[in-house]
Write a structure and sequence with these properties.
This protein is an alpha+beta fold. The chain has two helices and ten strands, in the order αβαβββββββββ. The strands form two sheets. Strands 1, 4, 5, 7 and 9 form a five-stranded antiparallel β-sheet that branches. Strands 2, 3, 6, 8 and 10 form a five-stranded mixed β-sheet that branches. The chain is globular. The chain starts with a helix and ends with a strand. Residues 1-51 have low confidence and may be disordered.
């Protein structure tokens, strides 16, 4: 019985993820007032997974379902908490992950700017990350896909 429930849960998550990554080019804007802060230049999803980041890595994860299946093509903006200076924008890769390096310790804000068509971010589309140099930091966003 337990394995049947797990299989149904995995199938449901996979179907939700497939509907998010259906190849549609449209994106849905995040909630008004949300923002994402990450240091450095804008990073494409391919660069985020193949190019080492300079500075301390801040990892952004976007997922759906209780198992947090990765959601690709989620755009997140990184800014400083104190001055709201934009450091860059990242896009999650096929695993729902993006990484940006920051060169100074401090408070950073990550905000979901857009998600794939058929999806929408959880009510909380902004997250604060406190970075200590040399210690990797991360944040997660829950994305709901129809």
């Amino acid at each position: 019985m337990r394995s049947a429930l797990l299989a149904v849960s995995l199938l449901t998550g996979a179907l939700a993820l497939a509907s998010c990554a259906d190849g549609s080019s449209g994106t849905t804007p995040a909630a008004v007032g949300s923002s994402l802060t990450v240091g450095g230049e804008p990073t494409s999803s391919a660069a985020a997974t193949t190019t080492p980041v300079a500075g301390t890595p801040v990892t952004i994860q976007a997922g759906t379902g209780t198992e947090m299946f990765g959601v690709p093509d989620v755009t997140v903006r990184i800014t400083t908490c104190d001055t709201d200076t934009e450091l860059g924008t990242v896009v999650t890769d096929r695993d729902g992950t993006a990484t940006q390096g920051v060169t100074e310790a401090g408070c950073y804000r990550a905000t979901v700017l857009s998600v794939p068509g058929g999806c929408h971010p959880n009510e909380v589309a902004t997250s604060t990350v406190v970075v200590k140099l040399g210690e990797p930091a991360s944040t997660r966003f829950l994305i709901h896909c129809a």
